[in-house]
Amino acid sequence: MRQWNNPELIHNIPKKEDQTMNQKIYLSEDWLFNENFQEGMTATEYPEETLQPVRIPHTCKETPFHYFDESLYQMVSGYRRHLHIPTEWQGKRILLTFEGAGHDSTVYLNGNKVGEHHCGYTAFTVDLSAYANYGQDNVLCVRLDSREDLNMPPFGYVIDYMTYGGIYRDVYLEVKDQIALEDIFVHTLITPDEAQVTSEITFYEVAKDLNVRQYYMLKSDAVMSGVVSDVTSDNDWQFLCEQNVPTGTMAETPFRIQGTIPHPFLWDTEHPHLYLLKTQLWQGEQLLDEAEVTFGIRDAVFKKDGFYLNGKKLRIRGLNRHQMFPIRCGNDLFFFIHHFNGIHHGNAGDTCGDTLPRSFTMQPVQYPVDQHGRNKRPCRIVDQDLHAIIRQSGQAVSDGVLTQRSASDNLPRNP
User: Fold this and answer.
1) Helix (H, G, I), strand (E, B) or coil at 130
2) Distance CA 187, CA 252 (A)
3) What is the mean pLDDT of each run of 10 residues along the chain (415 residues)?
4) DSSP one-letter code for 390
5) DSSP string over 302-363
6) CB 212 within 8 A of CB 198
7) Which residues make Cβ contacts (< 8 Å) with residue 414, sequence separation at least 6?
8) Of 190, 268, 334, 400, which one has the greatest count of Cβ atoms within 10 A?
9) What are the respective helix, strand and coil percentages of the chain, to the nearest 5?
10) pTM over 0.85
């Protein structure tokens, strides 16, 4: 058994004192929606009694069970939400992230445009700081165009699936100092006895006397199976590397830092071992920001005779699994269903396909008809592990059937 708890490698990692500045504040409730966006919706004053209360995730159009086409959900819709921004956040960077919105988004705060995004399958972040009214009510508005556009992927008359629309993934706030981590991109290089871990880091702003420190821990089924010791304590983080940010570094220019992990557990299709990387940004004795990234260590190469994973030839077989679901809600699903289906959506949610050794599946069965001749449209849960997860989450499950509910129902958001 590998000894991961070597006292010489373990550090007691300081935590950020202000926990509000180091967490995601989810905005799932209290949204208002209209299928027809109007310019007045961006203003602070608007007759909201004409709008429909919804919660996120949401689809812009619930489709019928039979006989419809993509024109039904192609529209320019609008979302509004009131947002109280505390005075304590003044001088901070207030970041709003959408993990998935289909498909062309424009975001407004108090009537001012704060950002736009032109893809329904990647997450995006906008900064609200410049137009926030601190200590007061603020109005957030999203103009969302779900019509097909030849200049925006995946459209262009080459797809054969429904793309739907709506804010169909989580929306959350993060509050950071002006000098903070913006993005961390990790890649690895495997040698016989170790893995070199390189991080490319960008910042929102830079200043003098900045220092970056990194720590890692194992996060995979090896922990669950007892191959390695449990890694739930802060004391289980192991030091990876530390480096000063050179004077003159530009915020938008990636800063590179490297460290090595001895005798790493490699990611493969049977044992998808993963690691957590914690990155901290310091200025003198002050911890300014920290972030965690999940990554795997593997060597993937295509050769003339096929694909090789970690030096072994691997035959790739499979089908494309889309994120929509056959109970008329399109892409609007609670995260745990996507997660336990093992779906990989790039930046629009977790990279679930990289974390599960097999796919959890939910497949339609024969649809019973009620006494009025209407189709109930349930969906039978095939995988018993998923069945247990849904029961624990409090979703509507009866005798192995997940029944249909509207996106605006008051359901628990996360398992």
Assistant:
1) helix
2) 19
3) 34 55 87 96 95 93 78 91 96 96 96 96 95 97 92 78 88 95 95 95 95 92 50 72 94 93 94 94 95 94 95 86 59 53 40 41 37 39 41 40 34 33
4) H
5) EETTEEEETTEEE--------S-BTTTTBT---HHHHHHTT-B-TTSS-BGGGT-SS---B-
6) no
7) 334, 335, 336, 393
8) 334
9) 10, 35, 50
10) no
* Distance, CA of 322 to CA of 47 (rounded, Å): 38
- What are the tokens at 111? 């009537």
Residue 311 C-alpha from the chain's centroid = 31
Instruction: Please give the structure tokens belonging to residue 389.
Output: 């997860």
For residue 206, give both structure tokens: 């830079």
Helices (H) and strands (E) in the chain, counts: 3, 25
List beta partners, residue 313. 308
Strand 52-54 with 194-203, pairing: unpaired
Tokens 């300014």 identify what position? Answer: 288
Give the separation between CA 379 and CA 20, rounded to whole angstroms.
39
Spatial CA neighbour of 348 closest among 188, 176, 219, 166: 166
Residue count of the chain? 415
The whole-number pLDDT of residue 346 equals: 35
403 vs 378: CA distance, rounded Å: 5
d(CA 254, CA 212): 13
Phi, psi of 138 (to 5 degrees): -125, 150
Give 360-387 as a DSSP string: --B---PPPB-TTS-B---EEB--HHHH
| C-beta neighbour count of 338 within 10 angstroms | 23
Residue 352 backbone dihedrals phi, psi, to 5 degrees: -65, -35
d(CA 330, CA 337): 13
Q: How many CA atoms lie within 13 A of 188 on its CB side?
A: 22
* Bond into 368 cis (ω within 30): no
